[in-house]
Amino acid sequence: MLDLHHIFTMQKKALFFLLALCALGWGFTSIPAVFAGIAVGACFGTYNFWILVRRMDKFDRSISEGKKTVSLGSALRFGSGIAAVAIAITLPQYFHLISTVIGLMIPYGFLFIGVLVASVRNK
What we know:
- By secondary structure, the protein is mainly α.
- Helices cover 82% and strands 0% of the residues.
């Protein structure tokens, strides 16, 4: 099974490719707000996944040292999602709300696809 750092590295590469596609869509289509919303949502979603990776490291260290476990940062990730949606609601002429929410879920889709690919390769 892949560790979280390897998955996060793969997600960063996929995010840069997605952002390039969003930049092209933003510049050359008639629906730039949709592509801008996807880009903002994907950035905040990747930030949420980075927080999760960092907190899982702290969690693993505290378990191995026998210390009391710490929170996994759910409130911080939830607040980040609210911030992304607040940006889309505040600036609807630049960011599409639904595409921002979809963009927030893209890193988890990348995670699912990465796990599927890794399990197919290991068979």
